[in-house]
Design goal:
Blueprint: H1 10-22, H2 27-38, H3 42-50, H4 54-62, H5 73-81, H6 92-102, H7 112-117, H8 120-128, H9 137-142, H10 149-168, H11 174-190, H12 196-214, H13 220-243, H14 247-264, H15 267-283, H16 287-298, H17 306-321, H18 324-340, H19 355-368, H20 372-387, H21 394-410, H22 417-425, H23 434-447, H24 456-469, H25 473-478
Helix pairs in contact: 2-3, 4-5, 11-12, 11-13, 12-13, 13-14, 13-15, 14-15, 15-16, 15-17, 16-17, 17-18, 17-19, 18-19, 19-20, 19-21, 20-21, 21-22, 21-23, 23-24
C-alpha cells in the first residue's frame, strides 16, 4: 500500500491554495496559513501561495528591473532557507525584487529570525523607509536618504546600461535561427514523400520548440525570424490536419499561422498562409471563403510560385461552384503568374507549386466544367513532368491518376479507367490522405448512372474503389489518439 504524502507536499500545498483561493482568501492569507501549518520560512510561503516553482521565481528575478540579478532555482532555495544552515542571505535588492514579483512588501518576506540576522545597515534602511507597496526595487535600497545630484546621474546611467544589457540579451542565436528554418524546409519537403503521421509528430515537436523560444527574450529581429518559422510550421500542421481529415483543427492552425505572419510582417508567409487557408476552406465546403483567401493572398507581391498556386486554388473553388468563366479566368492568371514569377520559394516542398502541381489543378477544373479532353492532356503532361522530378509528391501524383481515370471515363474510354488507377490502388493505407480518398469517392459516384455503369468492368472498378476507401489515413487516425488536433 502506498504511504500517504508527507504534510506540506506539493499536493497538499496545491489543494490548500486552490481551496483558499476559491473561498476568496488573499495571497497574503494563504502564505500565513502555509507558514502556520507547515512552519515555512516567509519567502518560501509566499512563493508556494502563488503556486510558483523555484525556477519561475528565479526567472522573474533575472528579468526584474534595475541592477541585474543572476538567480537560479538553487540560489532562490538558499535565500528562502536563510538564516538556516546551507543558506545564503538575500540582499535588500534581492528582497525588494522578490517583493515586486510576489506583489507584497519587503517586510512581508521577513520574520523575527530574519531581522535578528540582518546587518545593522540593512535594518536602518528598512526602519527608515517601509513602503506600503514596493513598486521598484530601487525604492527600498536607495530611498533611505536623498542621493546627491551626481549620484543620481550615475544611477540613471547605470539603469540605462542595465536595460541595454537586457535588451541585447537573447535566448536564441543566429545560427540556431538558421538551423530552425532549415528544419522547416526539410519538413516541408519530407511531407511530400514521407509517412504523414510521423511527419505530423516531427512538425508539432519543432513548432513547440519555436513557441517556447518565443516565450523567452530576444531582440525584435530574432523574434520576427522565430515568428516566420512558427508561421510556416503552423501552416504545415494546417495542411497535414486537413489531409488527415480534421478540418476544424486545420482551421485553427491556419489562424495561428496568419497571426505569426502578421507579427513577423512577412509578405511571403502571408501569401502561403492564404493558400493553406484556401485549401482548408475548400475541403470544408466553404467555397466562397476559399475564393476569398486565394484572392487575398494574390494581393501580396512576392517571389516564387505561390501566385500560380493561389490562382489554381481560386479556379478550383469556382469550378465546384459551377462558375465556368471565373474558373477559366483564374486558370489563365495561374499561367501568367508562372510566366511572370521571379526568384524561388523560400521554403519549397509543400510550399511550392511546380508545373506538375499546376497541371493537376487545371485537369480537375476542366473535368468539372466539362472539358475532359483538355483534362486528359493535362494529366499526361503532369505525369511526364513528375517522371523527370527527383522528388515525387505521392499525393499530387495520385490525384493526377484519378483525374486521368475520370477524363478517360468522360471521353468514352471506360476500359482504361482501371489501368489509370492502378498506381493509386497500390498506395498503402497510411498514405491515403483525405483529398485523395475524397476524389476516389467522387469518381465512384460519377460512374454510377453512366451508360456503362452496369458493365462488369465498371462494377469491378466501383467495388474496388469502395474497398480501397474503407482503409485510409484519416480513418486510421480516428481509431488512434487523434493527435492531428494538436
Amino acid at each position: 500500500m502506498t504511504p500517504p504524502p508527507p504534510q506540506g507536499s506539493k499536493a497538499d500545498r496545491e489543494a490548500l491554495r486552490h481551496e483558499m483561493t476559491a473561498c476568496g482568501f488573499t495571497t497574503e492569507q494563504i502564505a500565513v496559513e502555509m507558514r502556520s501549518r507547515w512552519r515555512m520560512r516567509p519567502r518560501e510561503a509566499w512563493r508556494h501561495a502563488l503556486g510558483w516553482t523555484l525556477q519561475k521565481a528565479a526567472d522573474r528575478l533575472s528579468t526584474a528591473p534595475g541592477p541585474a540579478i543572476a538567480a537560479d532555482a538553487s540560489l532562490v532555495a538558499k535565500w528562502e532557507k536563510w538564516p538556516g544552515p546551507s543558506s545564503r542571505r538575500p540582499t535588500l535588492h534581492v528582497l525588494a525584487a522578490l517583493a515586486v514579483a510576489y506583489g507584497c512588501t519587503v517586510e512581508d518576506l521577513l520574520d523575527i529570525e530574519d531581522r535578528r540576522a540582518l546587518p545593522e545597515g540593512d535594518l536602518r534602511v528598512l526602519d527608515h523607509h517601509v513602503p506600503e507597496q514596493t513598486q521598484q526595487s530601487q525604492e527600498v535600497v536607495h530611498s533611505a536618504a536623498p542621493e546627491p545630484a551626481p549620484d543620481r546621474v550615475l544611477a540613471a546611467a547605470a539603469e540605462s546600461a542595465s536595460w541595454a544589457q537586457r535588451a541585447e540579451s537573447t535566448n536564441v542565436g543566429d545560427i540556431a535561427l538558421e538551423q530552425l528554418f532549415a528544419d522547416v524546409q526539410t519538413l516541408a519537403g519530407d511531407y511530400l514523400t514521407g509517412d504523414p503521421l510521423l511527419m505530423f509528430r516531427r512538425t508539432r515537436e519543432l513548432r513547440d520548440r519555436v513557441f517556447r523560444l518565443l516565450e523567452g527574450h530576444q531582440p525584435p529581429r530574432q523574434s520576427a525570424d522565430l515568428y516566420v518559422s512558427a508561421g510556416y510550421l503552423c501552416g504545415l500542421l494546417a495542411w497535414m490536419s486537413s489531409d488527415l481529415g480534421n478540418l476544424r483543427a486545420a482551421d485553427t492552425h491556419g489562424r495561428t499561422a496568419w497571426l505569426c505572419a502578421e507579427n513577423a510582417g512577412h509578405a511571403a508567409l502571408r501569401a502561403w498562409v492564404c493558400s493553406t487557408r484556401s485549401k482548408v476552406a475548400l475541403w470544408d465546403g466553404r467555397l466562397r471563403d476559399a475564393v476569398n483567401h486565394a484572392r487575398r493572398g494574390a494581393l501580396v507581391t512576392v517571389d516564387g510560385t505561390v501566385g500560380a498556386l493561389l490562382a489554381c486554388q481560386e479556379a478550383d473553388a469556382w469550378s465546384i461552384l459551377g462558375a465556368v468563366d471565373e474558373a477559366e479566368g483564374a486558370l489563365t492568371r495561374a499561367i501568367q503568374a508562372r510566366d511572370n514569377a521571379v526568384g524561388g520559394d523560400d521554403v519549397g516542398g509543400l510550399f511550392s507549386c511546380p508545373q506538375a502541381r499546376q497541371e493537376n489543378y487545371a485537369a480537375a477544373v476542366h473535368l468539372r466544367i466539362g472539358r475532359p479532353q483538355a483534362a486528359l492532356a493535362e494529366t499526361q503532361t503532369a505525369l511526364d513532368l513528375m517522371a523527370s522530378q527527383p522528388i515525387r509528391a505521392y499525393g499530387t501524383e495520385a490525384q493526377i491518376h484519378i483525374s486521368q481515370a475520370a477524363a478517360l471515363l468522360d471521353c468514352g474510354h471506360p476500359e482504361g479507367v482501371m489501368e489509370a488507377l492502378l498506381p493509386v490502388l497500390a498506395m498503402p493505407a497510411e498514405r491515403r490522405m483525405g483529398p485523395v480518398t475524397q476524389r476516389m469517392r467522387e469518381l465512384a459516384a460519377t460512374m454510377t448512372g453512366r451508360p456503362v455503369a452496369d458493365s462488369n468492368a465498371t462494377t469491378a472498378v466501383r467495388r474496388t474503389i469502395v474497398d480501397w476507401c474503407s482503409d485510409s489515413a484519416p480513418q486510421q487516425l480516428a481509431l488512434s489518439s487523434g493527435e492531428a488536433a494538436g
